[in-house]
Request: fold
Amino acid sequence: MIEPYDWAGGREAMLRFGPGSGPVVVAALPLFEEANRTRAFVVSILRALAEQGIAGVLPELPGTGDSLVPTDRIAISDLRAAFAAAARTAGKRAYSLALRSGALLDGTVVIRRRWHFAPQTGAELFRALQRLHRADDMPGYGGHRLPDAFLEELPECHIEAARTVRLDTDLRPCDHAVPGTALWRQPEPENDLVLAALLADDIAAWVRACEA
Reply:
Protein backbone atom coordinates (compact mmCIF):
# COMPACT_ATOMS: atom_id res chain seq x y z
CA MET A 1 0.00 0.00 0.00
CA ILE A 2 1.25 3.50 -0.86
CA GLU A 3 0.43 6.40 1.43
CA PRO A 4 1.71 9.96 1.82
CA TYR A 5 3.58 11.60 4.65
CA ASP A 6 4.22 15.30 5.19
CA TRP A 7 7.42 16.93 6.35
CA ALA A 8 8.48 20.58 6.56
CA GLY A 9 9.64 20.62 2.93
CA GLY A 10 6.55 19.09 1.37
CA ARG A 11 4.89 15.74 0.82
CA GLU A 12 6.49 12.40 -0.09
CA ALA A 13 5.22 8.83 -0.42
CA MET A 14 5.94 5.64 1.46
CA LEU A 15 5.19 1.95 0.97
CA ARG A 16 3.49 0.21 3.88
CA PHE A 17 3.61 -3.51 4.61
CA GLY A 18 1.96 -5.74 7.18
CA PRO A 19 -0.55 -5.00 9.95
CA GLY A 20 -1.93 -1.56 10.68
CA SER A 21 -1.10 -1.66 14.40
CA GLY A 22 1.69 -2.74 16.73
CA PRO A 23 5.41 -2.10 16.24
CA VAL A 24 6.51 -0.79 12.85
CA VAL A 25 9.94 -0.93 11.21
CA VAL A 26 10.85 2.17 9.18
CA ALA A 27 13.47 1.44 6.53
CA ALA A 28 16.18 3.81 5.28
CA LEU A 29 17.78 2.82 1.98
CA PRO A 30 21.38 3.76 1.26
CA LEU A 31 21.85 6.96 -0.68
CA PHE A 32 22.33 7.38 -4.43
CA GLU A 33 23.11 4.39 -6.68
CA GLU A 34 23.24 1.90 -3.80
CA ALA A 35 19.54 2.59 -3.23
CA ASN A 36 18.73 1.29 -6.73
CA ARG A 37 20.82 -1.84 -6.13
CA THR A 38 19.18 -2.69 -2.79
CA ARG A 39 15.56 -1.51 -3.02
CA ALA A 40 14.13 -4.91 -4.00
CA PHE A 41 16.20 -6.52 -1.24
CA VAL A 42 14.84 -4.17 1.45
CA VAL A 43 11.30 -4.70 0.16
CA SER A 44 11.89 -8.46 0.54
CA ILE A 45 12.95 -7.91 4.17
CA LEU A 46 9.82 -5.85 4.89
CA ARG A 47 7.58 -8.45 3.25
CA ALA A 48 9.21 -11.19 5.32
CA LEU A 49 8.61 -9.12 8.45
CA ALA A 50 4.96 -8.64 7.46
CA GLU A 51 4.59 -12.44 7.22
CA GLN A 52 5.74 -12.56 10.86
CA GLY A 53 3.14 -9.98 11.87
CA ILE A 54 5.47 -6.95 12.07
CA ALA A 55 4.59 -3.85 10.07
CA GLY A 56 7.08 -1.97 7.94
CA VAL A 57 7.30 1.17 5.86
CA LEU A 58 9.74 2.28 3.17
CA PRO A 59 9.61 6.07 2.72
CA GLU A 60 10.79 7.98 -0.30
CA LEU A 61 13.00 10.75 1.05
CA PRO A 62 13.54 14.15 -0.65
CA GLY A 63 15.94 13.83 -3.56
CA THR A 64 15.64 10.03 -3.67
CA GLY A 65 13.56 7.56 -5.64
CA ASP A 66 10.48 9.16 -7.15
CA SER A 67 10.78 12.35 -5.10
CA LEU A 68 10.40 15.55 -7.11
CA VAL A 69 13.13 17.28 -5.08
CA PRO A 70 16.34 17.47 -7.17
CA THR A 71 19.53 16.06 -5.66
CA ASP A 72 21.26 19.43 -5.97
CA ARG A 73 18.94 20.71 -3.22
CA ILE A 74 19.31 17.94 -0.65
CA ALA A 75 20.82 18.29 2.81
CA ILE A 76 21.45 15.68 5.50
CA SER A 77 19.23 17.71 7.83
CA ASP A 78 16.34 17.52 5.34
CA LEU A 79 16.78 13.77 4.81
CA ARG A 80 16.77 13.25 8.57
CA ALA A 81 13.74 15.49 9.04
CA ALA A 82 11.82 13.63 6.34
CA PHE A 83 12.75 10.24 7.81
CA ALA A 84 11.59 11.43 11.24
CA ALA A 85 8.29 12.61 9.75
CA ALA A 86 7.79 9.26 8.03
CA ALA A 87 8.43 7.47 11.33
CA ARG A 88 5.87 9.67 13.11
CA THR A 89 3.32 8.94 10.39
CA ALA A 90 4.08 5.21 10.48
CA GLY A 91 3.12 4.74 14.12
CA LYS A 92 4.03 5.38 17.74
CA ARG A 93 6.03 2.15 18.24
CA ALA A 94 8.61 2.76 15.51
CA TYR A 95 11.99 1.10 14.99
CA SER A 96 14.52 1.95 12.29
CA LEU A 97 16.06 -0.44 9.80
CA ALA A 98 18.94 1.22 7.98
CA LEU A 99 21.19 -0.19 5.28
CA ARG A 100 24.63 1.24 4.51
CA SER A 101 24.50 5.07 4.35
CA GLY A 102 20.86 4.94 5.39
CA ALA A 103 22.32 4.67 8.89
CA LEU A 104 23.19 8.37 8.62
CA LEU A 105 19.52 9.30 8.44
CA ASP A 106 17.96 7.94 11.65
CA GLY A 107 20.10 9.93 14.09
CA THR A 108 17.52 12.53 15.08
CA VAL A 109 14.29 10.55 14.83
CA VAL A 110 12.37 9.66 18.00
CA ILE A 111 12.16 5.87 17.80
CA ARG A 112 12.42 2.95 20.19
CA ARG A 113 15.60 1.37 18.84
CA ARG A 114 17.87 1.33 15.75
CA TRP A 115 18.98 -1.66 13.63
CA HIS A 116 21.75 -1.22 11.05
CA PHE A 117 23.03 -3.55 8.35
CA ALA A 118 26.57 -2.90 7.07
CA PRO A 119 26.41 0.78 8.13
CA GLN A 120 28.49 3.28 6.16
CA THR A 121 29.78 6.36 7.96
CA GLY A 122 29.61 9.86 6.54
CA ALA A 123 33.37 9.89 6.01
CA GLU A 124 33.19 6.58 4.11
CA LEU A 125 30.37 7.87 1.90
CA PHE A 126 32.30 11.08 1.24
CA ARG A 127 35.38 9.13 0.11
CA ALA A 128 33.24 6.89 -2.12
CA LEU A 129 31.63 9.93 -3.76
CA GLN A 130 35.02 11.53 -4.32
CA ARG A 131 36.31 8.37 -6.02
CA LEU A 132 33.19 8.25 -8.18
CA HIS A 133 33.61 11.90 -9.12
CA ARG A 134 37.21 11.37 -10.23
CA ALA A 135 36.51 8.16 -12.16
CA ASP A 136 33.19 8.97 -13.82
CA ASP A 137 32.80 10.67 -17.20
CA MET A 138 29.34 11.91 -16.19
CA PRO A 139 28.89 15.29 -14.49
CA GLY A 140 28.61 15.41 -10.72
CA TYR A 141 28.74 12.18 -8.75
CA GLY A 142 27.49 9.20 -10.71
CA GLY A 143 25.14 11.52 -12.55
CA HIS A 144 23.92 13.20 -9.33
CA ARG A 145 24.56 16.90 -8.85
CA LEU A 146 25.18 17.47 -5.15
CA PRO A 147 25.42 20.78 -3.28
CA ASP A 148 28.74 21.66 -1.70
CA ALA A 149 27.06 21.97 1.70
CA PHE A 150 25.93 18.35 1.55
CA LEU A 151 29.44 17.12 0.76
CA GLU A 152 31.02 19.33 3.41
CA GLU A 153 28.83 17.98 6.23
CA LEU A 154 29.35 14.30 5.37
CA PRO A 155 32.75 13.77 7.08
CA GLU A 156 31.28 14.94 10.39
CA CYS A 157 28.03 13.00 10.01
CA HIS A 158 28.07 10.22 12.59
CA ILE A 159 26.00 7.12 13.21
CA GLU A 160 23.99 6.58 16.39
CA ALA A 161 24.27 3.43 18.51
CA ALA A 162 22.31 0.52 17.06
CA ARG A 163 22.12 -3.24 16.83
CA THR A 164 24.67 -3.77 14.06
CA VAL A 165 24.61 -6.71 11.68
CA ARG A 166 27.30 -7.32 9.04
CA LEU A 167 28.19 -9.89 6.42
CA ASP A 168 30.50 -12.57 7.76
CA THR A 169 33.19 -11.38 5.33
CA ASP A 170 33.31 -8.01 7.14
CA LEU A 171 35.61 -8.34 10.15
CA ARG A 172 34.62 -5.08 11.83
CA PRO A 173 32.84 -5.27 15.21
CA CYS A 174 29.13 -6.14 15.13
CA ASP A 175 26.38 -7.77 17.16
CA HIS A 176 25.67 -10.47 14.58
CA ALA A 177 27.24 -11.71 11.33
CA VAL A 178 25.43 -13.46 8.47
CA PRO A 179 26.47 -15.09 5.18
CA GLY A 180 25.48 -13.36 1.97
CA THR A 181 26.41 -11.08 -0.91
CA ALA A 182 27.16 -7.36 -0.74
CA LEU A 183 24.33 -6.42 -3.09
CA TRP A 184 25.25 -2.73 -2.98
CA ARG A 185 28.49 -3.57 -4.83
CA GLN A 186 26.87 -5.47 -7.68
CA PRO A 187 26.88 -3.80 -11.12
CA GLU A 188 23.12 -4.34 -11.52
CA PRO A 189 20.26 -4.51 -9.00
CA GLU A 190 19.95 -8.02 -7.53
CA ASN A 191 18.14 -9.70 -4.68
CA ASP A 192 19.06 -12.34 -2.11
CA LEU A 193 15.93 -13.89 -0.63
CA VAL A 194 17.88 -16.18 1.69
CA LEU A 195 19.76 -13.23 3.20
CA ALA A 196 16.55 -11.20 3.37
CA ALA A 197 14.90 -14.00 5.37
CA LEU A 198 17.90 -14.24 7.72
CA LEU A 199 17.82 -10.51 8.39
CA ALA A 200 14.04 -10.44 8.79
CA ASP A 201 14.31 -13.21 11.41
CA ASP A 202 16.95 -11.22 13.29
CA ILE A 203 14.90 -8.01 13.15
CA ALA A 204 11.71 -9.78 14.23
CA ALA A 205 13.43 -11.38 17.22
CA TRP A 206 15.04 -8.05 18.12
CA VAL A 207 11.74 -6.14 17.90
CA ARG A 208 9.97 -8.72 20.05
CA ALA A 209 12.76 -8.55 22.66
CA CYS A 210 12.52 -4.75 22.70
CA GLU A 211 8.75 -4.92 23.07
CA ALA A 212 8.87 -7.44 25.93
Notes: The domain at 2-206 is CATH 3.40.50.1820 (Rossmann fold). The longest strand covers residues 10-17.
